[in-house]
Task: structure prediction
Amino acid sequence: MSEIDPALNSGNAASSSAAAGANERKLARKETWRLIRRRPSFIIGMTIALIWVVCALFGNLLAPFDPLNFRGDLNSSPTWSHPFGTDKGGRDVLSRVIAGARDVLKIAPIAAILGVIGGVILGMFMGYLRGWFDSVASRIVESFLSLPVVLLGLLAVTTLGNSNVVVIGVVATLFTPVVARTVRSAVLAESELDYVESAKLRGESTPFIMFREILPNVSGPIVVELTVRIGYAVFTVATLSFLGAGPPPPSPDWGSQVSDNYNSIVSGYWWSTFFPAMAIASLVIAVNLIADAVQSVVESS
Result:
């Protein structure tokens, strides 16, 4: 019995230490979130982003006219009845801008999340396993990073089709190498620390060490990458739509609106292009403000 007691005491001590570490990490996350919420850039960015989220969720109720079927005067300048004017098809631009938020916010965040998940998994294996796997994967990642994202996306969407599922998959695939490189660098630094060696000595499995020990300690860069990628995803999706790889007209997609009406600028009908372009810019800026707030707090903590 006396031989078992030390083992029991050791197990209890390890459990207490693990519980204390989990509580410390929980308190640290709460403090980080509190600091992020107090940043002016986060407040401004979230306010703008939430406006577009509301438009995406309740666009049919908020739009004053039918964004697809309403027909008024062609290229009517902004008035009280049409604050953003009408486009060359006589459709209310304000209604189409409100409705257009749905396509962007339905595709961009999902694509960014999937890209980050893929990048985290790949980067974790690259940074922890090293050796031949890291060498081969690094060469593949570098080859992807050397090519223009929009060009690859346009080629893939043109080949596979322009459905939402295809666009999400293409954008997520294009973001995976970028995130993997960031995660790999963080994991390389963490894998040299004592707690990783302790986990190896305890006989923990490789997946356990990577995703239970190392992953929580590299969550800061991952969160920053996620916020940054959402902004890039919005811009990438809008760019693909502008180049004709998005929903076809008369879809209210913002990129499609700009593509459909930008030729009217030379005739003085600027509003049908200006307002959807400003919608894209405002959402990208909002996400970047949120990303800046997250990054500044994470890097200082």
Notes: The radius of gyration is 24 Å. The chain has one domain: 39-300.
